[in-house]
Amino acid sequence: MRTERFALVAGSYGPGMTAFPASAAPAPPTVQSPPRDPSQAPRTDRAPHTSSAASTSPAVSPAASVAVPSPSPSASGASASSGSSGAARAERACVAELRLSAFAGHRRVRLPFGPLTLLAGPSGSGKTGVLRAYEALARLAGGASLDEVFPDPAACVPEDARPDGQGRRGFRIGCTADGPLGPVRLDIAVQAEPELRVVGERLSAGGLVLLETALRDPARRTVEASWHTGGPAAVTRAALPDDRLGTALLPLRVAGRTEGQRQVLAAAEQMVVALRSVFVCAPRPERMRAPAPVDAGRLTRGCDNLAAVLWRTRAECGRRHALLVEAVRVGCAGPVADVYAEPAGEGRVRAVLDRGNGTRTGFERLGDGELRYAALALVLLTGPGVLEVDSAGEVPEALQTLTVLVDGLDVGLDPRQRAALLGLAGRMCERGHIRLAGAVSDRAWTGEEPAARMVDLVR
């Protein structure tokens, strides 16, 4: 078994023990990005940049083998030649690549993400780890602390990673966010043992390092941060907490007086916007059968309160509700004329299927596959910008793109349900308001859906 000593900590810990090389952002040595056109350097007045994720070479490592078909302009959502709607999609910030340099069972892995991304592979190939890393970055971008995001940090450390002389071990993850500024890279190094803390972070765009942090003094709960200024001083230095993502804190620390500072703020905003709008969907059929409080609010990750959400959304957008009924009609056994919630007493409501012949079937009678299918269809049809009630005029359009993460997307679904759900996902993701990344056990079930980007993981 190959072993590797933990070498994430930075600066004064010792020679050569830096979180990232001083000259460039960390990148897997086996994958070379295409040469960057100097004209693509990030500027606030530049035109939307077309994502380069489709042209990125697949990862070559023992942990994963990536096969990426060339997406059509409509599938990628990044082609300005596809008309005004395509240009609008290119304006939206989105995650184009996830990097697992050293995380759980993954090493030197680069995974491209499109509007509809399916992670395929057998049990133990690391699909759950990929989605967990994505969710972790999203929560950090939203301002969560490390201990909230990583309750068991030791599980994120590669199994064969050996501690250094001070007993330190850790992990490294990162991503690329595409959007109006072009590709913006974020990479972070986290020490998991003996204490959980960020030991290095780098935000870069167009070959320029915009933010870099390093842990200089282990006795202090801060990291030394330096960000691009572009004025009389090349960089600004300050201390940031070692339990938060520095990129998410930049809007509170950078004045924005110089062009360089505005460039830093724009890149940080694009990264945070691309990451933070994530909904992890893990339907729990055993909880969906029970009535839900009518004031349960937004849909939870387990979809426990699906009945309450149906109670609210059925009256808010008749068109989208009709699409939901059509989807449920395909995925549930027997005739379906309507899907709605009805009072169940004590301030609760229960979800039912109207069979159209006077019969109403409560969700408590449906099978696990039917319940999972109905929940996933509802999620795809109720993302930001889809239902009128969820649209906020004061929120930038880019913030209204929701990324849905689903582990075990195909669990409990029969071939008809799988095909119908994938077709619905392809149509909704093509519009640009919602993105879906799901893990499946076998790529064969996806059929001929052209909008899906398949990423194969192997043990």
Reconstruct the topology from this structure:
Elements: E1 4-5, E2 60-61, E3 64-65, H1 73-76, H2 84-91, E4 94-103, E5 106-112, E6 116-120, H3 127-141, H4 146-149, E7 161-162, E8 169-178, E9 184-193, E10 197-205, E11 208-214, E12 222-228, E13 235-241, H5 246-253, H6 259-276, E14 278-280, H7 285-288, E15 292-293, H8 306-316, H9 318-331, E16 338-345, E17 348-354, E18 360-362, H10 368-381, E19 402-406, H11 415-430, E20 434-440, E21 453-456
Parallel strand pairs: 1-7, 6-20, 6-21, 14-19, 19-20
Antiparallel strand pairs: 2-3, 4-5, 4-8, 8-9, 9-10, 10-11, 11-12, 12-13, 15-17, 16-17, 17-18
Helix pairs in contact: 3-6, 5-6, 9-10, 10-11
In brief:
With 459 residues, the protein is of the alpha+beta class. The protein has two domains: 4-29 and 48-115 and 125-277, no CATH class; 279-456, Rossmann fold, CATH 3.40.50.
Structural write-up:
Residues 50-85 have a biased composition (Low complexity). Residues 1-85 are annotated as: Disordered. This is ATP-binding protein. By secondary structure, the chain is α+β, with helices and mostly antiparallel strands. It has two domains: 4-29 and 48-115 and 125-277, no CATH class; 279-456, Rossmann fold, CATH 3.40.50.300. Helix 9 runs antiparallel to helix 10. The strands form five sheets. It has an eight-stranded antiparallel β-sheet with strand order 5-4-8-9-10-11-12-13, with helices on one face. Strands 14-19-20-6-21 form a five-stranded parallel β-sheet. Strands 15, 16, 17 and 18 form a four-stranded antiparallel β-sheet that branches. It starts with a strand and ends with a strand. It has helices at residues 73-76, 84-91, 127-141, 146-149, 246-253, 259-276, 285-288, 306-316, 318-331, 368-381, 415-430, and strands at 4-5, 60-61, 64-65, 94-103, 106-112, 116-120, 161-162, 169-178, 184-193, 197-205, 208-214, 222-228, 235-241, 278-280, 292-293, 338-345, 348-354, 360-362, 402-406, 434-440, 453-456. It has eleven helices and 21 strands.
